[in-house]
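Q: I'm building a small set of examples for a reading group on sequence design. Run inverse folding on the following structure and report the sequence directly after it, with nothing in between.
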């Protein structure tokens, strides 16, 4: 249990984090983590799905849940005076959901619609296609929602087995931020989740992904634009060089003054949407770049990206550019600190990844210590690799000059 007391707050944000996600599944259970997340709001031994929804609304505030590649989270924010009621409700859905067959069937259709929605949103779908290419047969290459054919056959036995296997005490972190004292929070959790203490620990070990040869693939689809995600392996979320990578990403395509945004959108007008991003886990990670362009601008845009990557490997970042990136990162860190949901998420992820609280000062010191030579050396290691690339849109192989992708 981790918490952060913020005395001036009148609210508290509470989350239950389970160390399980899409990367813990296999071909016959792909999408199971996300399906379970949905089902925990569909009725318990003492509450129907509509009663759960009504009680959450009556409490006011906000409640939600999400599934990622490596975690599932159930959380909400309520007035501090409503915290005991909210924790009791969380414990009921977390420990006593019944997984009614009719509810499973209804939710199956909801999830199938969700899958269709993502596939109809190319700027989202291209990222799934890219990750499938990057990670190959490793479960990190699976989608979070799962494939249609697997979700269509998902049943109560598989869902309950998922709970039994992964929802174990060693994989669960309770986190709270706001006007809540740590002792009070611990007492609430102990009172409402006491049955967890008697459960066995999980013995499932995660398979670490291995770097593979870069892959380029076109997914032809009749769209107005071509959507491209390209990238390569970076580093884990706990790596010593994580601060250097954070700054490198900001400089590359992390904000409006970044090189990709300026060169592609502002100076050349080739695209409206262009950015870079990081995705990292406890044992791996990658650097990705996304662009959505008209077909006639595709090769020009990719050539600009390739040129900017080469610049990072050949030319030191200027002192002013580096200072601006550090200030942007520091400001973002403290702006996020004004959001209780972000603070709850931060301490929970620190516990999951680092096993300790990483203070704000430690992050600032890590960012401050990064030098221009650090960034150049890191860029040479990462950007000199061939990029895995997913292209989604109204193009074929003959429309693309693949030499610009090297």
């Amino acid at each position: 249990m981790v918490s952060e007391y913020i005395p001036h707050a009148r609210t508290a944000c509470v989350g239950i984090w389970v160390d399980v996600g899409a990367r813990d599944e296999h071909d016959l259970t792909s999408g199971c983590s996300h399906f379970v997340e949905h089902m925990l709001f569909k009725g318990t031994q003492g509450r129907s799905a509509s009663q759960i929804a009504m009680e959450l609304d009556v409490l006011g505030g906000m409640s939600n849940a999400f599934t990622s590649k490596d975690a599932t989270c159930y959380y909400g924010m309520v007035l501090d005076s409503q915290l005991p009621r909210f924790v009791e409700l969380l414990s009921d859905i977390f420990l006593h959901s019944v997984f009614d067959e009719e509810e499973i069937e209804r939710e199956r259709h909801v999830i199938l619609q969700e899958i269709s929605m993502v596939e109809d949103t190319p700027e989202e779908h291209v990222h799934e296609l890219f990750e499938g290419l990057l990670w190959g047969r490793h479960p990190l290459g699976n989608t979070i929602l799962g494939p249609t054919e697997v979700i269509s056959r998902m049943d109560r036995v598989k869902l309950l087995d998922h709970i039994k296997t992964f929802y174990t005490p060693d994989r669960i972190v309770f986190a709270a931020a706001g006007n809540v004292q740590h002792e009070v929070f611990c007492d609430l959790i102990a009172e409402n989740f006491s049955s967890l203490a008697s459960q066995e620990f999980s013995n499932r070990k995660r398979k670490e992904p291995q770097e593979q040869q870069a892959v380029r693939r076109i997914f032809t689809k009749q769209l107005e634009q071509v959507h491209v995600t390209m990238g390569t392996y970076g580093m884990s979320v706990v790596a010593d060089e994580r601060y250097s990578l954070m700054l490198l990403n900001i400089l590359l395509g992390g904000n409006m003054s970044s090189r990709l945004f300026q060169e592609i959108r502002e100076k050349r007008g080739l695209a409206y949407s262009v950015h870079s991003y990081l995705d990292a886990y406890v044992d791996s990670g990658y650097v990705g770049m996304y662009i959505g362009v008209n077909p006639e601008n595709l090769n020009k845009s990719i050539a600009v990206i390739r040129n900017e990557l080469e610049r990072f490997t050949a030319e030191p970042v200027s002192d002013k550019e580096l200072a601006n990136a550090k200030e942007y990162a520091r400001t973002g860190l403290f702006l996020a600190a004004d959001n209780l949901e972000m603070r709850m998420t931060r301490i929970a992820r620190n516990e999951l990844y680092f096993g300790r609280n990483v203070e704000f000062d430690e992050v600032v010191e890590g960012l401050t210590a990064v030098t221009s030579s650090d960034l150049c050396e890191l860029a040479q290691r990462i950007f000199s690799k061939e990029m895995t690339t997913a292209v989604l849109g109204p193009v074929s192989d003959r429309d693309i000059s693949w030499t610009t992708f090297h």
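Residues 2-198 form a domain with the Cytochrome Bc1 Complex; Chain A, domain 1 fold (CATH 3.30.830.10).
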